[in-house]
Design a protein that fits this description.
It comes from Dyadobacter sp. 676. The chain is α+β, with helices and mostly antiparallel strands. The protein is about 50% helix and about 25% strand. A hairpin with a 2-residue loop joins β4 and β5. α8 packs across α9. The longest helix has 27 residues, at about 115-145.
Length: about 190
């Protein structure tokens, strides 16, 4: 949070700088669980390097709901804000460098910044952009075929296809790895129908 806000909104650096000492830097290997489904989120997570995914377990099968890469900040938002069990597990899928800022400090920072009109505007803009992306993904999942979802992923977020293992992408698209392989084969042969 502090890192990407510091660069994007330097007018508020006096606040960001105050909370830098409270950020915990961790270098973690792939497959490190940062938050387990059912736990209450106590930290805001910032990815300096690497890739992280959020997923839930459905009858022993992992369903990926989101990926986060460098310069992304996130948490299991409902859990973090409302102190309820997380619906998601958050796990690294590459060796990663992450920073954690405790909920206590996030709330203090927000309290200090709440009187700053530019901060309120920043938070509303970030929230609106993230809400739009999630809404677009939900509509796409309901409306579009798996082939259309994969093609959209290639067009709009190609870095995911380049960096993330196929079985995670398949889970994210709501298909099996075998089905995703067929979709990719059709696209390669120019036979996909959209």
């Amino acid at each position: 949070m502090v890192f990407h806000f510091r660069e994007q909104f330097p007018q508020l650096n006096v606040y960001w700088e105050k909370y830098l000492p409270y950020m915990q830097r961790r270098e973690v290997p792939a497959k490190t669980t940062l938050l387990k489904e059912g736990q209450v989120s106590q930290s805001y997570i910032f990815v300096e390097k690497g890739c992280v995914r959020a997923y839930f377990d459905k009858d022993g099968s992992e369903k990926t709901v989101q990926f986060f890469f460098e310069n992304s900040g996130f948490s299991s938002f409902d859990s973090f804000v409302n102190e309820v069990p997380s619906l998601f597990t958050i796990e690294t899928i590459e060796p990663s460098v992450i920073y954690l800022l405790s909920r206590v400090y996030v709330l203090q920072l927000i309290g200090e910044l709440s009187h700053e009109p530019s901060f309120v505007h920043i938070i509303l803009g970030i929230s609106a952009a993230r809400h739009k992306r999630y809404s677009d993904e939900l509509v796409s999942f309901i409306r579009d075929t798996p082939e259309e979802r994969y093609q959209r992923l290639l067009a709009e977020r190609p870095h995911i296809v380049r960096r993330v293992a196929q079985h995670y992408i398949a889970s994210y698209l709501g298909v099996s790895a075998v089905h995703l392989s067929r979709i990719k084969s059709k696209l390669a042969k120019g036979k996909a129908h959209f």
